[in-house]
Design brief:
With about 240 residues, the protein is α+β, with helices and mostly antiparallel strands. Helix 1 packs across helix 2. It folds into 3 domains: about 55 residues, RNA-binding S4 domain (Structural Genomics Hypothetical 15.5 Kd Protein In mrcA-pckA Intergenic Region, Chain A), CATH 3.10.290.10; about 90 residues, Pseudouridine synthase I, catalytic domain, N-terminal subdomain (Alpha-Beta Plaits, 2-Layer Sandwich), CATH 3.30.70.580; about 80 residues, 2-Layer Sandwich (Alpha-Beta Plaits), CATH 3.30.70. The strands form 3 sheets. Strands 7, 8, 9, 10, 11, 12, 13, 14 and 15 form a 9-stranded mixed β-sheet that branches. The protein is built from 6 helices and 15 strands. The longest helix has 13 residues. The chain is elongated and about 70 Å long. Strand 2 and strand 3 form a beta hairpin. The structure holds uracil. The site of uracil (URA) has 8 residues, from helix 5.
């Protein structure tokens, strides 16, 4: 990561705004390798220097990557006046600049990547890259062979163009409820719900299972999260590059 200005590092790590952390430094509340920091602009080697603020070690992570099993009832945003947000669920976060990579509807559950790595997020979300996303859905009636064909051909959901070919796998089809998995390579607003609406069905439950190379960890209950492993981060970055 190399060198970072002390005031930026402290602000990113959640010690306050740039002007608040400058005050901390000026009041000699911050030490670098045991010596009072020289000034807010002092360059810090994040791999070597030991920083303490008010006697406590400062942990600095340049990038953070969390996998959240989003629960229903929480919005895919950083802040919201009314509802709890997915970023607020990440209680262990060190960085203040985390955001969700893409959106799930308030009532949708499942895999959501939360990070501050804007480059990776961009790669995963750029429409032209067609990153695959698989959802588990329950719908309010039977799902037929004809539906599988229609989803594969692309559906008219009221956009300029039909949806791109999507893979629909029927786990169970029933008159009152069916269970399916759907893989799409786009991310249009309410896309899965609108695709089922186009064939006369209503989605009653929706959960995202995968996004690119990332698969929801079965051990995470709704509302739980964990850091991505190094392997998962690498795989996502490779995927972003190669697609
Ligand atoms: N499609 C939807 O309709 N909703 C989501 O939350 C995600 C995909």
């Amino acid at each position: 990561m190399g060198q970072v200005r002390l005031d930026k590092l402290l602000a990113d790590a959640g010690y306050g705004t740039r002007s608040q952390v400058r005050q901390l430094v000026r009041k000699k509340h911050v030490t670098i390798n045991g010596e009072p920091a020289k000034g807010p602009e002092q360059k810090i080697d994040v791999d070597k220097d030991q920083i303490f603020c008010e006697g406590k070690p400062v942990f600095y992570a340049a990038y953070e990557y969390y996998m959240l099993n989003k629960p229903a009832g929480v919005v895919s945003a950083v802040t919201d006046n009314r509802d709890k947000t997915v970023v607020e669920l990440i209680e262990d976060r060190q960085r203040r600049d985390l955001f969700p990579v893409g959106r799930l509807d308030k009532d949708t559950e499942g895999l959501l990547l939360i990070t501050n790595d804007g480059i990776l997020a961009n790669r995963l979300l750029t429409p032209g890259r067609h990153v695959e996303k698989t959802y588990y859905a329950e719908v309010d009636g039977p799902v037929t062979q004809m539906d599988i064909k229609l989803f594969a051909e692309g559906l008219d959901i009221g956009e300029e163009r039909r949806t791109l070919p999507a893979v629909l796998i029927v786990e169970e089809s029933g008159n009152a409820c069916s269970k399916v998995q759907l893989t799409i390579t786009e991310g249009k607003f309410h896309q899965v719900k609108r695709m089922f609406q186009a064939v006369g069905r209503r989605v009653t439950f929706l959960k995202r299972l995968t996004m690119g190379s990332l698969t929801l960890d079965e051990a995470l209950a709704p509302g739980e999260y964990r850091k991505l492993t190094e392997g998962e981060i690498l795989a996502l970055k490779k995927q972003g590059l190669s697609t």
